[in-house]
Amino acid sequence: MPTVALSAAMRGRAASLRAMPMTFVRPPCVRGMASRSRPSAGRRVASGAVTAAAVLAGAAFAVYCLDSRAGVHRWIFPKAMELLTDPETGAKFSIGVLEHGLAPRDCVADDEVLRTELFGRTLTNPIGLAAGFDKQAQAVDGLFDLGFGIVEIGSVTPEPQPGQPKPRMFRLPLDHAVINRMGFNSEGHEAVRERLDARMQRWVQRVLGAGQGLISNLGTEEAEEAPAKLRAAQLLAGYPVLDVSMLDAAGVPRSLKEDRLLSVNLGKNKTSREDSPADYVEGVRRLGPYADMLVINVSSPNTPGLRRLQRRSVLEGLLRDVVAARNDVAQHRPTTLPLLVKVAPDLSDAELEDIADAAEASHIDGVIVSNTTVSRPTGLLSRKHVEEVGGLSGPPLKPLALHALEVMYRRSGGRLTLIGSGGIASAADALDFARAGASAVQLYTALAYHGPGLPRRIKDDLVATLRAQNTTWSQIVGTGLAEVPAYAPDAQRVGLYPGAPDALERSVASVRHELEQLRETLGVQTHGEERRALPFALHKGDEDYATLLDEAHAALDGEAHWAATETPHAGVLPAHDSAVPADLLAFAQERGSTQGEALHEAVQQAVEVPQAAPGVQDSGKPDETLGGLEAQRAAPLPAAEPTRVV
């Protein structure tokens, strides 16, 4: 009985608990959560309004960023890339954004004053992208969307190669310049060909899809406004197999953009024979069918021996072989396949003229002037990375490229189509190149510093300038520059191009310019007395040195600094006192060495063990020197022997 009573009591207690209101069994935290889960109607409206405003603001910002003219693309994104990435990583990131359609676009139609004729084709504008940015043809359409009239991919080599070890690209931010030694890093002909072919097939599928939509809407306003698209779709639909030749039947350029050109830049593998045209010939045959224009790169400074192909004796034969291959590829095309060669700015005037002659003799269509420079012009503001090996691009390159362009245009008499490249960052730069003879221009480095809106800004400024002068781009080409900027490569920082006849003159001009700047900085008068170097007796083994002296004096002022004597490499100095001891000459003659060698040895001995020069007797009258050492004042040097000023 007690057990039955307990069970009954428990059942009663449970029943009483079930009858109690739920609020008595909920913990306080649960009650708080339940009360907060039902906000007031006003709060719900406010929260919805904030969410909607955020979505609208995000959408508006996205639309704003789609226009390449947006300020963020000029003032924020380039600076962020410069701070957060190295140059090569930044370029790869930009290519990825362009490849996936996330980059901004040029949303404005090009003005009529920018239209130009190039190789018999009309371009909506003369602003192109130089080779080196999209080496693997990954972002062709995204780059055209930025507003370029020409997009050049590459350089592309026959076989894949990694290029130079990293790091291999360096910013010079104060100069808005870049030094690179990429070394033709390429995925090879086949990878690039497959990418271009896939791009073409995607375009054909889009055209066919659009054509089917137009056919289903025949008679409507939409179909009547797009007869060209309808005809293209009908033509392409008749091909059983998608092939690049179908573009010719439809009258479509390889750029797949009306009035635009797709250019392919061809390079050589590092392991290929230096003087062989085989790599270029193979590139023409494999990639020529996908290009509106081909460029032979013989001027990259980062492939050993490549620049030697610019010598006329080699270049003319190479170009003839490449032209023959181009003719084979283009014989079934209704339009021409222009072939150009890209040259360096570090050549002498004579070499540039030789290239112009070789280009005409081999019947190529044009020249791109110029590639990067191996020199380091005076006036560079950046100090970090300036000593890195590689090609320099950006504004410091402009005077060199302009000079080379002016020489090429003058030599060819306008018979060769020239494309200018090198330091172009503004409409004023583009106009300088046009006046010097460029029918179109290309840029690259400036894009990294000024953002993807640069092509549109240059075009807008060009339109304003040309309309103010009541002229057009085509009309100013070759009208001539008022002044071609001087240029002076710095020979102390980089070896000059071998074989250039005026290389020494350039070097001397550069050094003299730096000395004058240093004198002005220090407040020294530049017209004061100039001291001659000490005289040195010429050794019979110093013939090369003597020749160098002759050239140096001729480069300085065209006058010899010595009087002619019976020997071709001797001179007579005016009588004067010298700090070189007379006994040192006898010491040098006994040793069979030059006075310079004897001087060097004497100085080395003096540094190691303080002592008088060889053969000098101590007179007991020491003289204090700056180093605190005791040395004997040297006797005057007799001026009877023929000596030479160095």
UniProtKB/TrEMBL annotation:
<comment type="pathway">
    <text>Pyrimidine metabolism; UMP biosynthesis via de novo pathway; orotate from (S)-dihydroorotate (quinone route): step 1/1.</text>
</comment>
<feature type="domain" description="Dihydroorotate dehydrogenase catalytic">
    <location>
        <begin position="114"/>
        <end position="465"/>
    </location>
</feature>
<feature type="region of interest" description="Disordered">
    <location>
        <begin position="611"/>
        <end position="646"/>
    </location>
</feature>
<dbReference type="GO" id="GO:0106430">
    <property type="term" value="F:dihydroorotate dehydrogenase (quinone) activity"/>
</dbReference>
<keyword id="KW-0472">Membrane</keyword>
<dbReference type="GO" id="GO:0006207">
    <property type="term" value="P:'de novo' pyrimidine nucleobase biosynthetic process"/>
</dbReference>
<comment type="similarity">
    <text>Belongs to the dihydroorotate dehydrogenase family. Type 2 subfamily.</text>
</comment>
<dbReference type="InterPro" id="IPR050074">
    <property type="entry name" value="DHO_dehydrogenase"/>
</dbReference>
<dbReference type="Pfam" id="PF01180">
    <property type="entry name" value="DHO_dh"/>
</dbReference>
<dbReference type="GO" id="GO:0044205">
    <property type="term" value="P:'de novo' UMP biosynthetic process"/>
</dbReference>
<dbReference type="InterPro" id="IPR005720">
    <property type="entry name" value="Dihydroorotate_DH_cat"/>
</dbReference>
<dbReference type="InterPro" id="IPR013785">
    <property type="entry name" value="Aldolase_TIM"/>
</dbReference>
<dbReference type="InterPro" id="IPR001295">
    <property type="entry name" value="Dihydroorotate_DH_CS"/>
</dbReference>
<dbReference type="GO" id="GO:0005743">
    <property type="term" value="C:mitochondrial inner membrane"/>
</dbReference>
<dbReference type="InterPro" id="IPR005719">
    <property type="entry name" value="Dihydroorotate_DH_2"/>
</dbReference>
<protein>
    <recommendedName>
        <fullName>Dihydroorotate dehydrogenase (quinone), mitochondrial</fullName>
        <ecNumber>1.3.5.2</ecNumber>
    </recommendedName>
</protein>
<keyword id="KW-0288">FMN</keyword>
<keyword id="KW-0560">Oxidoreductase</keyword>
<keyword id="KW-0285">Flavoprotein</keyword>
